[in-house]
Amino acid sequence: MFQINDNYQKLPGSYLFSTIGKKVNAYQQANPDKNIIRLGIGDVTQPIAPAIIEAMHKAVDEMGHAETFHGYAPDLGYEFLRKAIVENDYKARGCEVEADEVFVSDGAKSDSANIQEIFAQNNRIAVCDPVYPVYVDSNVMAGRTGTYDKNTETWSDVIYMPCTAENNFVPEFPKETPDMIYLCLPNNPTGTTLTKDQLQEWVDYANRVGAVIIYDAAYEAYISEDNVAHSIYECKGARNCAIELRSFSKNAGFTGVRLGFTVVPKDLKCGDVSLNAMWARRHGTKFNGAPYIVQRAGEAVYSEAGKAQLKEQVAYYMKNAKTIKDGLKDAGYTVFGGVNAPYIWLKTPDQMTSWEFFDYLLEKANVVGTPGSGFGPSGEGYFRLTAFGNYENTVQALERIKAL
Amino acid sequence: MFQINDNYQKLPGSYLFSTIGKKVNAYQQANPDKNIIRLGIGDVTQPIAPAIIEAMHKAVDEMGHAETFHGYAPDLGYEFLRKAIVENDYKARGCEVEADEVFVSDGAKSDSANIQEIFAQNNRIAVCDPVYPVYVDSNVMAGRTGTYDKNTETWSDVIYMPCTAENNFVPEFPKETPDMIYLCLPNNPTGTTLTKDQLQEWVDYANRVGAVIIYDAAYEAYISEDNVAHSIYECKGARNCAIELRSFSKNAGFTGVRLGFTVVPKDLKCGDVSLNAMWARRHGTKFNGAPYIVQRAGEAVYSEAGKAQLKEQVAYYMKNAKTIKDGLKDAGYTVFGGVNAPYIWLKTPDQMTSWEFFDYLLEKANVVGTPGSGFGPSGEGYFRLTAFGNYENTVQALERIKAL
Q1: CA B346/CA B383 separation, integer angstroms
Q2: pLDDT tens, B155-199?
Q3: Measured between alpha carbons, how far is A361 from A342 in angstroms, rounded to an integer?
Q4: Is some CB atom of chain B closer than 8 A to the CB atom of A296?
Q5: Which chain B residues have a beta carbon less than 8 Å from that of A5?
Q6: CA distance A76 to chain B (A)
Q7: What's the mean per-residue pLDDT of chain B?
Q8: What ipTM did this prediction achieve?
Q9: Chain A, window 56-95: residues with a beta carbon less than 8 angstroms from a chain B beta carbon
Q10: Could you give the CA distance from residue B213 to residue B125 in angstroms, rounded to a whole number?
């Protein structure tokens, strides 16, 4: 009789965003006249930029003719895209990354969930708290997290690094030594980040203790301050300890187009074994390439026209971020993030729990956000608003909040 | 110090198609004047059908405007696609499959590699021999296959079911009881298949011993005989024991477009645990949906125009299959497959090994095929040619082979 992977049974029941969805739907059904503004989930709202649309039309046409048809893509991704990535995201910033260290994928969510597969099951993972749920859940499924404590909402074998206002959202080196450290910078959900010097300390720490850093840089396009690294490979020694995950979802609005990539440097080794070769094997066996049309769309992100259009798109969202941040401050809230990231993290007022504030905001202002506690116990008492709405809605949402 | 998943170190060195690629490149470089015809890898050559191209252009346009832009897709896939799948692939054939049992993905290769993740590590897998390498390799990576014997080219914990001319390519129930049975029908690489009655016996067997069947139906569009099932759910009891994988790569030429789906019936359970719910959780955590544009392309596969155009495309490839099969017969070869599948499986002449015949065909006829032994030890002495080339090349290749 076949048996199942019983690690799945350990996963706590419902997923944050489905709980939110259910609550919002119930409220809307009970109050059909209310105009709810959603600043919850991190999905974008602006359309794909014209230069990218043009590239996709061209690629679609190519697929319609035998002479220009494209079948199976190269395992790592097309060279035209990997070269554009290397030139623009790395060489232009002085980072040493080669095209055969770039693995094109269907998105950073898949990569961030899959990357743990090439590591041993008894590795100890460390995550920031609060944290993007996929890092932990994918490790739960792999049996790497021990047992779940419902009261503390933590796993026995996961090292949590609290990031709160008390430590300025800068994680401290944990007491127990981790093997794999997940860092998402600029951070989802807090919208805060580290300076390059602070990141360098983490790279040095990882090299010192023999840990690998899984570095999720999905929000790097939103960095506005000079002393913040866009890539971990701006730090010395990162090629020996870090894997970097990148997304096209937030810089180019590809949440529904699906494209990302992962950099695994050839210098990253466990003994003699190259993690680059392992990921290549994983990629070649359990994945079959991102669509040709989508890879051409990715290439257009790096064209002159694409870059100019996306700069405007990022500026549009960052104007929303400023609107939210300034509006909340005016209303007396304590707020974080929103300078190098499209997320604003606020302290709930009057000692409300995150979910109490969720209900309050939904019912009194008809605005949907995300309860901080949904991202981990240290998120309790915090709340996330995203800058990915449209500007008019964002302004209106803040007017409602200010009027409370 | 972090450790790696050392199952990866057990994988034998080089991948079949990269070895072939290297040999072909070396030959071409040494003989730049030779016109090599490739009937090796299972990639298609015909362009995407007009109805699908039109649907993709329309979807690209939608992505370019805020009112019709699509961000994150629903976890299972868009309802428009899941409904089209259910109506056309299942209800039309009298199979009971509901839309919430269909999980849209980026392709059957990913699904066939990922599906093992929801099963326990100590499950025993059974595969046909020869076999599509991904089934075994993904289980190697998960630590489910024991140790590799270089001499026999087999894994200690894998149950092999030889499929050769001796048993008419019909696998026999294995002596040891498996927990997970991989069946690819119509078969890659042999191009043969089972009758519906023979498949029913496998379903009954699986239900009797408590095994799950992972049923890869990527080639169902090529079935031409009435007594062959297009879906395993045509068999009684399959909803209790079978997961079905489907691809758009071969019926619609999506090898570079990337789309597939997996059916996990709600009746498939391990004790109280629904595998449908487990796969939903896996899909929601480690994947983020197929591109909107690609899902619209998939929908167009089921439009009236799409169906008519793809019927022609399949007929085009099957004409190639007939050309290959008849040509080989004329030349005195013993051939199998090619009736319900786009693959022809031939017995190598003069007791040649599969690789000897590969070299012979490359050097004497400048035709590339795939050595049967690359798919498993029972493939030794066989050789695969695919019908996915263009017609003119296929005719020419056969003329060369006949002239040998």
Answers
A1: 5
A2: 999 999 999 999 999 999 999 999 999 999 999 999 999 999 999
A3: 20
A4: no
A5: 117-121, 278
A6: 14
A7: 97
A8: 0.97
A9: 56-57, 60-61, 63-66, 69-73
A10: 10
> What DSSP character marks residue A219?
T
Q: For residue A14, name the pLDDT band (cuts at 50, 70, 90).
A: low
CA distances in angstroms from B330 to A4, A28, B58, B322, listed in the order given: 51, 72, 48, 12
What does A42-111 look like in DSSP terms, one character per residue? ----SPPPHHHHHHHHHHHHHHTSTTT---SPPTT--HHHHHHHIIIIIGGGT----GGGEEEES-HHHH
Q: Closest by alpha carbon to A219, among A183, A243, A273?
A: A183
CA distance A228 to A212: 21
Give pLDDT tens digits for A51-94.
999 999 999 999 999 999 999 999 899 999 999 999 999 999 99
Up-side HSE of residue A251: CA atoms within 13 Å toward CB? 27
Q: What is the pTM of this model?
A: 0.97
Q: Cβ–Cβ of A53/B60 closer than 8 Å?
A: yes
Cβ–Cβ under 8 Å, residues A126 and A376: no
What is the number of other CB atoms lying within 10 angstroms of the CB of residue A205? Answer: 17
Instruction: Please report which residue ranges of B10-157 form alpha helices under DSSP H.
Output: 16-30, 50-63, 79-85, 108-114, 133-141
Indicate the Cα dihedral angle A206, A208, A211, A213, nearest 10°. 20
The CA distance from B241 to A141, in Å, is 23
Asked if the model's pLDDT at residue B15 lies above 90, the reply is: no
Which amino acid makes up residue B171? P
| Amino acid residing at B311 | K
Q: Which residues of B338-375 are buried (b: 16+ CB within 10 A; e: fewer)?
A: bbbbbbbbbbbeeebebbebbebbbeebbbbbbbbbbb
Determine contact: A47 vs chain B, CB below 8 A: yes
Q: Which two tokens stand for residue A57?
A: 């039309």
Give CA separation, A232 vs A128, A198, A229, B129, in Å. 17, 11, 7, 46
Cα(A257)–Cα(B62) distance, integer angstroms: 12
In chain B, residues with a C-beta closer than 8 Å to the C-beta of A255 are: 71-72
**Partner-chain residue, chosen from B1, B45, B270, that has the shortest CB–CB distance to A210:** B1
Digit-coded pLDDT (tens) for B192-232: 999 999 999 999 999 999 999 999 999 999 999 999 999 99
Question: CB under 8 Å to B173, separation ≥6 — which residues?
Answer: B205
Q: How far is A330 from chain B (nearest CA, A)?
A: 30
Report helix, strand or coil for B146: coil
pLDDT at B16 over 90: no
**DSSP code, position A216:** E
Q: Find the angle CA(A53)-CA(A57)-CA(A60) to the nearest 5 degrees.
A: 135
- The Cα B209–Cα B207 span in angstroms is 6
